Write the structure tokens for this entry.
Amino acid sequence: MDIATIIGFVSGFILIILSILIAGASLLLYVDVASAVLVIFGSFFACVAAYPLSVTRNMFKYLGFIFRKYKYDYTGVITTIVSFSEKARREGILALEDDIEDLDEPFLKKGIQLAVDGTDPEIIKNMLFIELDKMEDRHNSAIGFFNLWAGVGPAFGMIGTLLGLIQMLANLEDQSNLASGMALALVTTLYGSVMANLFLLPMRTKLQGRHDSEVMMKEIMIEGILSIQGGDNPRMIQMKLAAFLPPKERSIFEQTAGV
């Protein structure tokens, strides 16, 4: 579980509640089921209309990506690739055949297998980048869904406010309920803004971060696979792949690996 995500959502929601209480208002004043249904489900089904059902069906899978903690072991992958390159230079690339089955990462496993099979480097590069591009398409659909949802959420909040104002203006003769009617009409705008800015936009950003990390991992693998097949010096491969790492992580890796 990604604790930072939970802390952010819960803390933000608690601050909103505290702000209401500090202002001396009643929490019940901000509770309206009809407004919540309109904002949440109305905006959601607007997104359903914009995207294929295959994207909508994977909603719980996307939420899992958001709340689950991921650790991309870049240095571990680089170390594995370098060790493979050392063995390939000593014994030939066919010697990697026995080590392929021990790889847990399917993308790396596929690339090394293609190299061992003697596939042309350009074909390997094209095949792996096609797979990477398709993965990016899938990820961008999920990111785009949450981005659109964050955009239409406040719009449906405004729709709810307009509906409330119409109902209020239709009953102008009842002066005693004008103030409460106006407050209730504005609740939907509040719901839409909170849903978009506290939940949906952070979710979109979290998915984008996961996507960027996975793309970088696969780019490291592609570069490493092509370098192994090209017979590059293991030390040069190590230095080349270390360049993908952020400065702090790169410095630690270089000290550990003795680059």
In short: The chain has two domains: 1-31, 32-259. The two ends are 34 Å apart (CA to CA). Residues 32-259 form one domain. The chain has a mean pLDDT of 87.
